Amino acid sequence: MADWNPTSWMSKPIKQEVVYEDTEGVQTALAKLQQLPPLVTPQEIVNLKKSLRNVALGKAFVLQGGDCAELFDYCNQEMIEAKVKLLLQMSLVLIWGANKPVVRIARIAGQFAKPRSSPMETVDGVTMPSFRGDNINGFAANPVCRKPDPSRLVSAYFHSAATLNYLRASLSSGLADLHSPLDWGLGHVITPSVKEKYERIVNRVTDSLRFMRTVGLDTDRGIETVDIYTSHEGLLLEYEQSLTRLLKHPPNAFSGPEPAAYSGSPLGATTTTASSSHPKGYYATSAHFLWIGDRTRQLDGAHVEFFRGLANPIGIKIGPSMSPDELVNLLNVVNPTKEIGKVTLISRYGASKIAQHLPAHIAAVQQSGHIPVWQCDPMHGNTQTTPSGVKTRHFSDILSELRQALEIHRAAGSFLGGMHLELTGEAVTECVGGAGGLTEDGLSERYTTFCDPRLNEKQALELAFLVAGFYREGLDGPESNAM
Ligand code: PEP
Ligand code: CO
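That is the input. Now the predicted structure with cobalt (II) ion docked in place:
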């Protein structure tokens, strides 16, 4: 790409800019980042891209989830394990439901920077910069802590590295070993009939795993561990640019396994088999997958400029303010070769608006010849504030947007490729509803998010059961008895 380089975004207008007083500190931090090793390798990124191509073609499903705003403090054993286990369990349920391999992408190991509706806020009469995420400023409500601090850029790298290190180590040590029994913890489900239904699904999943073991189908790497990819919003371009690396070497210059050709093993894990393509190009190595937020996706803006040069699979959030023409123009800019599955369109309209906007978006994209992954984010269009001023989301709205997305895609001859959720492995009380019956009055019990309200582990698992049920009802393809 002749007119692109990792800093070409600097000549474009930028939204959500971070203004540092300490410009020298920024240069020192960026120089340090440039010399640190990549957090993920091009080989892994290419593997994910191949899997997402299959999602775009309707052959696999992508589950993406994690915190709205990850904090440096979340880099601890308990929280990392809880999130991995939750994503694993949800994916097993979805594999059973959709009868497709599931690609797992966590919002983890770098989901630090947040776009904000207002750059400043007033707390107890004192006006200060808003909290922009742990890699920019501190949450504590005082002007000193809220000042953008460039040393946080390097700290973000090391917290990402430590999180990723434990994620990789625990996966390779058997945290996601499907031979071990999983604790499905369905005790919270208050309705006996619903509980019985979920237990039936769990039994089907565990039976299938037992069957695979009996017939010896579980001897490859697939059942001992699974792949989990990392992702975050690519908001802080100084940081991303410093970790973007040009891959000049031919494929075999990297040690380790060859890039995996996609193999739809029954549990969705990719196995490594030889493949030839490992394209040269610029790889953002802060995570496998980056996305552009709904507030920074201007066609002529800095974020789109940066993203158009990346070899990674990328996401674009789309909401009610996106026109169908603009959507196609955007796809043409970031993916001029119309690579299948290169772009994931993450739609987030809201349960009451999806029917009004998604059909026209699908039609325009179909006409353009682009084949993206269509992913539903049922969180960001459904945020509400309770009368007492607490930000929340209703489980029923989240479910409704997902169901509508499935139905609209099916009616249009398109595929809903996946879902994008804000969730945590902790027992928080931030979203209302679900089988646990959380009400607005119960929100204050364990409301710990630093940004948007997340599904707790039980609500997230329940959502997976329900979405699996939609597939089983034949909403998106024929009923199948496999698994
Ligand atoms: C997010 O995913 O946390 C987010 C800010 O989303 P959006 O860009 O869709 O508002
Ligand atoms: Co959010």
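The chain is about 35% helix and 15% strand.
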